[in-house]
């Protein structure tokens, strides 16, 4: 079988001939149903649309030039509906960049702000010029390039792994390897990340979630605080939804932008690791009334953004504007964007930032059945792609457990984060919520009904996490009572005040061995609970070796040692890394944690919460210690899969019991975050410690027991 990776071009497009000449360039009407710019054998096809605009002009620039060398107005005959399309013959894609100018009415009170002199980026641009050097914007305006896609994916199949089988590792492409201690050749790039694939395999995760990699402008809102340059480091200010961020590319890729990223994705897939992208469809980098006009505002401000009755911008994103996601034209763009990344980059899933905005009407009100969410959920190309919602927004809409998902979307489980953070540090009144969360949050996601598969629909809706890019790292969660964002320049007013953290007795750095011992035990507790909770676990890169951001819980602007992973901590805290490795491996080898299995032969119920006495399934409201059991029959091993996790958040010893098992089964201690006399915190299979009916849990510790044959 012969495979073709080049775009199929019908024979008629190979024999097209010019019909007119504009400014010395031979042209003809183009391919109206192909958005963006596409290379053809005879030239380049340019297609854009504007609803309220009255005319459109194509601008051609020499590479890196500020002034265009050609302006080609679209004739009226080159327009169908709202769409302008033109083929320009004889263009060499390596010799030019392009942009547009659109004229139309200027009526700000009605949301119309056309400026025929504004240089506009193609909303469907596959590559953005002028962003190649991190920390600088060389053009002064955004230009696009036409790309040549010759990457061969071979016969690589799409992943069939379910959400419940994922262990997600959230990372920032630049920060992951930019610190000199990373030891990679291409620091801060896609290529640098690829050099760390052996590390990711050793750790055992099977999905990476990359913070935004769509083209963004890190220099936007750049400022200086106390002599330190602050950038928009995280990248939640999208410039182009179809283009990869060229600041993350190690080498020049003129007109082949995205190749290095594709090489990385293929390598990750070849090593069994899926790729999830953090996508930002709730706002753009154009900001509010004071922000720049470089793309969507200039094409159709009234279409792309939610506007108040007087023409100002609704700000449900907290970033100045709100994308009008349920307008048909914007809906189509988002769908085409996700299809493009799925087909051309083989992305396995998307995490939608502030996803509740995607369910708002044009006037900002929440919709009962948002057309965009339904469209993405039912699209045939996206059928097997993971869709993950951050089910809230900055406008006060909080939909955790009730995101309008058509049983297709998963959610970041904000309650899991809040309740487990609170309970693990000793806020006992969160015991019920903590137990529900470890059990899979069935009260939120309906985990107790079947969708005719073995996965039980509810559990595939739940992404559990204690840390992510937004907030404290896991080490800082147990090193700081308060946020320390002074270096952000906002007098420590930015970032969340609700951290549910605990400094273990000293704020920040300390060399007190007792406090350090407690901090690392708290980290082990968090890791053990996360990996033994039903739902999909996610954790922040660097948590596995104690990376710190010095108490900064909003490091969005810190392109420095605050945000860069310090890889020297990997050896310093190797013991912690080994614990993470074990817990990840333990989760992989015990499917009963991840999903419902056939009924256990031993007769244990599939799942229960427990008091200190395992026979008591009722947990008091103020319980200081609780347990959760998972039981089922594993057809692959032909044995019962039995796991019992106990959490003691009290500062005193607690005597617990474990469920009675009929012979020849017994309980074995697999994990004890307190440690034994040899400072062992886990026991590999075959080395577990046999226990009787009772077990003494030491203060602030977690124990995991495995049921198996005696």
TrEMBL record:
Q: What keywords would UniProt list here?
A: Glycosidase, Hydrolase
Gene3D superfamilies (alphabetical) = Glycosidases, Golgi alpha-mannosidase II, Immunoglobulins
Report the enzyme's class at the first EC level: hydrolase
User: Matching Pfam families, A to Z?
Assistant: Alpha-amylase, CBM_48
Question: Which EC numbers characterise this protein's activity in its record?
Answer: 3.2.1.-
Mind listing the GO molecular function terms for this protein?
Answer: hydrolase activity, hydrolyzing O-glycosyl compounds
SUPFAM superfamilies from the xrefs? Answer: (Trans)glycosidases, E set domains, Glycosyl hydrolase domain
GO BP terms: namely: carbohydrate metabolic process
UniProt family annotation: Belongs to the glycosyl hydrolase 13 family.
Task: Spell out the protein name for this chain.
Answer: Glycogen debranching enzyme
Species name for this entry? Answer: Acetatifactor muris
